[in-house]
Model the fold of this input.
Amino acid sequence: MSGNTFGNLFAVTNFGESHGPAIGCVIDGCPPGMDLTEADIQPDLDRRRPGTSKFVTQRNEPDQVEILSGVYQGQTTGTPICLLIRNTDQRSKDYGDILQTFRPGHADYTYLQKYGLRDPRGGGRSSARLTAPMVAAGAVAKKWLQAQFGTTFRGCMTQVGELQIPFEDWSHVPNNPFFAPMADVSAIEAYMEALRKGGDSCGARIRVTASQMPVGLGQPLFDKLDADIAFAMMGINAVKGVEIGAGFASVSQRGSTHGDSLSPDGFRGNNAGGVLGGISTGQDLEVQIAIKPTSSILTPRESININGESTEVITKGRHDPCVGIRATPIAEAMLALVVMEHALRHRAQCGDVAAPLAAIPASAG
Done:
């Protein structure tokens, strides 16, 4: 009821605050017998962590994960896995000025109205810092899915502010701070530098995919795979829109072209994004998310204080000029958690995941 747990069979309970002593999660339902160490989780946390370039928040957190339970002699035991990430670089004094005011675009107002009190330090529970435990949990899910089905996850930035980012090759993504699939990111650097110096922020569009997908995951009517993907993505801080497959472009398509034709060699296209009738086709899952501009900016903005009086807010501290820059590993993790949940559901109801029809190779397209 309190909204801190994601999933049912692979349930991830997120805990902690941005400026508390630590953040983390408890994973309940991980199958036993899988090799697991901190080294399996740390690389994804390193991709998400702050302080990695001048284009993101300069809060310098190592985000070193600790496995506190659920693993014995390097293997999962089937019992709850507790993952802990200690906060080491909080600077709570930066938030003293906003204790009595509400930052436009933030959850300050709604948290106070709901709970009657709020933690203003870095946003408390509403901080994007709380995505780190989900990235850690996603790394566990990724490892199991890779071992079981060969499923892999990857993502990239396709737009930042007004700049469209053309897709060149996946190999470029790890070689720049923007997760951009292109070799020359100088235009993005110049754009972000001007934005940072101007004290403003922008949004972003992120693409995330899952390849080597099992066929048959998802249940109609209300536990559809794509419905749960949308639910998961909207649970990421600052996400304001989700597209599956062709998404909103479907509006301008004709039925004669939108439906993905089938041939003996497989599907002719993937406008469906790898899901038909809420059930995976075995094609790549294709998801895009829209992320709003960072709300914590240096530009003065009109607001009110807790007494309802007009005031002006300037948000100090260390913030991302575009929170979308670090969102790619977060989106990958949430997609992995959804696929993991549905894989376990399918196994519970139907047994082993079905193989695609021999005449229709699901990996095609």
Summary: The CA atoms of residues 17 and 125 lie 5 Å apart. Residues 92-350 form a domain with the Chorismate synthase, AroC fold fold (CATH 3.60.150.10). The longest strand covers residues 152-160.
